[in-house]
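Residues and backbone
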Amino acid sequence: MSDIFRRYRYYVVPGSMAGRIFVLLAAGIAASAIISLFIANMMRRADFDHIRAERVIASAVDVAERLRQDPGGTEEMLRRRLIFGATLAPLGVGINRPEAGLAQELAERLGPGSLPEVGQVPSGLCFKRKRGPLGPAAAGIADLPPPDCWIVRFTDPGGQRRAIALGLPRLSMPTDATFNLIDLLPIIALSAVLSIIVSRQIAKPLRRLEKAAADFTLSHDPRAIPEEGPDEVRAALSTFNLMQERVRAGFRERTQLLAAISHDLQTPLTRLRLRLEQVKDKELRERLLEDHRAMQNLVREGLDLAGSVEVREDWAVIDIDSLLTSMAEDAEDVGQPVQFLSGCGGVARVKPNALTRCVGNLVDNAVKYGGSAEISCTRGNGRITISVRDHGPGIDEKDLDEMFEPFTRGEAGQPGGRPGTGIGLTIARTLAMTFGGSVALANAEGGGLIAMVDFEE
């Protein structure tokens, strides 16, 4: 259920563009369909009224023509109900709601001076429903409603006023489906499905841009976004790729400057060491050489920091357990107290050298400041976490984040503690960012510090 919500969360969040597109599109499609259904229903009703009017006029014209040709015989037939669907109008039946449009059309068909009147009256005034053995016994038509009754009055060519009753089979207008919930549910459901499909297609390039922006904040070596989609989207993606490249160029220039300064310092430092070794006072010479070694370490780690930012390495899929086992064995071979405690059986797409250097820096820090290093690996939710634990004094909780700032050291690295420049964690975090990972610190239960490298499988 949580995976489904994450996948479709854009359509239930009113503030998201996909959510707004979904709401507007679904409402628009549903409204258009309902309006179209309403218009179709109105047109159907108009056709129904037109057909009914044509039948009334056709029947009235037919009876009028018969009366013109044979007035006496036709009147007798009407009285005896021998003409199907027509009879003499009952006396005293008035037309409460005359149909002016029908009267005008009938006047055109009957000629001037006919002065027709047309209107529908209750069926019971014209036709009495038969009761007897034939009525109820008729198969399938016993419950048919009585025909509609139309009263038509007109003046025939002889000047006599005629009144006839027309019985036309009753036509029932189909139910209006415009506001029928059962009929509207499929329209609303289909509108929602179509809206989701369209909004997904519209928002897909923007979600790629969102992911690329997030990756850019986590990696110094981001990949360009494929410039696909409508013109406006391609322009936005192209601008974002250009921005990435310009920021990357700024990193390269800064890195090259740092590397150049660090490299150029090597020569005067070498000359300085030669001259320091000529100092006759032994105690002073040792102090000066110690300061010189500290300066060389700063320069060397400055070069390492520059190299960690400018990592140009291909991605590869590697077995994490095999890598960590190899690193622990190599450290043990040179006498370092490093153990690989547990693996996770994970395979990940990373930059192998960057990951190796990142974990190596954490192991070196653990050995230098904590006396030993224990390496382990865990997996969960599509991510891999490599943990390096030491058994040293740890770090105050409030200072954990500051440890990643360049040249920042904990109490163990202060004067009187173990030597260090405070760049190791900075380099580790920078290396992790090149393959989309992150580095975090936490104090372990029972003492010591845990450094964790987290990245996607």
User: Anything to note?
Assistant: The longest strand covers residues 148-155.
